[in-house]
User: Fold this.
Amino acid sequence: MQNTTSLFPGFHLQTLRRKPRSASQKLSDEIAKLKQKTFSQLGECFRNFIPSQYLRPSESGALSRRRFFSKENTFWAFFSQVLGDDGGCQEVIRKLQAFAAMKSKPLPSSSTAAYCQARSKLDLLGLETILEHTANRLLNIFNPDRMNSRRVVVVDGTGVSMPDTMANQLVWPQQRHQKAGCGFPQAAICACFCLQTGALLSHKVGNKKSHELPMLREQWDTFKPGDIFLGDKGFCSYFDLSSFKDRSVDSVITLARRIPVTEVEAVEVLGNDDLLIHWKKPARSKASSYSQADWEALPETLLCGR
Assistant:
């Protein structure tokens, strides 16, 4: 009896036994491939999402002249730096030198000064326009068959360190327990993402005194009727859930309460550890930032899923 290898030479039994790769593993492989590309190749990969019209030289002022550190070259070099493992400028200069050699152009200096100056001249409004265009482009490939054609907007907050300058220290001060001169300015970010496409829809930046909820309220216009707001217990606020409901936006968040709701107390049992409950409006505290009129306008109960 012939073995499988002789009958089917293209078959590889070890491959057939291998566990299928997960979506996260496939994404990791794609990111690794992008990291190996030159910044000019990145432009080819992403031109459907970031058209060259957004990277044309400015009519006047910064990045208006056609130099080696043009608006387009500087943008894709910066994009490559963001994808890099260490995020250092020296690696970007190495890629720029390789690009110049390939185009038979004079090699730029090994110093990072010229690149850093060109990067600082990138227009913030232009970058935000590119971000908005990219998010809208991703929404065009939204699969309407999922979630009954409803968009799920994930909201989360994080903290980042900023360059250690006196100006940044004033805007984004450190925590009080941080020893002076030993830390970096700390900024807080609250952002809204599309769950299906991963697109960044909006974001707000604050300092250590900025809570995620106020920063989320500055982004309410990001939500459209029919959207679903998905957040953790840091966003568990009766006022905000009621405000979202007024905008025809449903909310799915972790209930910030220590006493669990039992099935007997629930309006309906939707599934395992999934209960539909009435959430009674809490009493307004003296320290509340909401006005008395806003608080009285809230409904006495909300129908919420745990």
About this structure: The CA atoms of residues 138 and 197 lie 6 Å apart. The beta strands are 152-161, 186-194, 200-206, 228-231, 250-253, 268-271, 274-280, 301-305. The chain has three domains: 25-126, 147-256, 259-306.
